[in-house]
Amino acid sequence: AEETWWIDTDTSYPIKQQIEWTDQDGETIATTIRTYHELTVGADVDSEAFGFEPPKGTTVREPTLPTTSRYRSPEAAETATEFEIPEPTVPDEYEFHEATVREFDSGTSVVLAYVSGSETLTVQVSERAIQGDSERVVKRDVGTVDGTLLSVDGRPSLTWECAGLSHRVSGPRDAGALTTVADSVGCGAGGSTA
Q1: Using CA atoms, how far apart are residues 159 and 150, in angstroms rounded to an integer?
Q2: What three-state secondary structure class fits 87?
Q3: pTM reported for the whole predicted model
């Protein structure tokens, strides 16, 4: 991936960002551009500008927050789930950091986090559909998992469904690295794609 930033010389604030991803053959597979217009730094904004009054007849529901637990190993996290947690093959420079288990009304979600310096690689397995309102499909049928490569907030992510579970790998900007990790996960702990 190649990232380009445009910085306002007066404020030192970024006003434009472009990220371009290429595959192993050097072909562009995704480009995202974020641009800010009419930048005002330190503006005095009326707090009422952020108020929202739902239309009449609307049912307002308070969100149900998940119960969140953190574990120092995938094995410890597995005691809190009804499904097997995968053992992904991650690039050598990444080390396991923590496992986060979130219990929602609609099922359990596990996120395995691996770190390399300031970079984080995550592997998510969930009994519920993984949220994706801001996602953009870049390529389908990726790897042996037949995953979908997405651009999520300017970063690539690979998702797939298997054995009644939703999966996502995100972190490295290299789509090939995402594919390798996803293929190692497959349908779960065994890494198979049955």
Answers
A1: 8
A2: coil
A3: 0.66
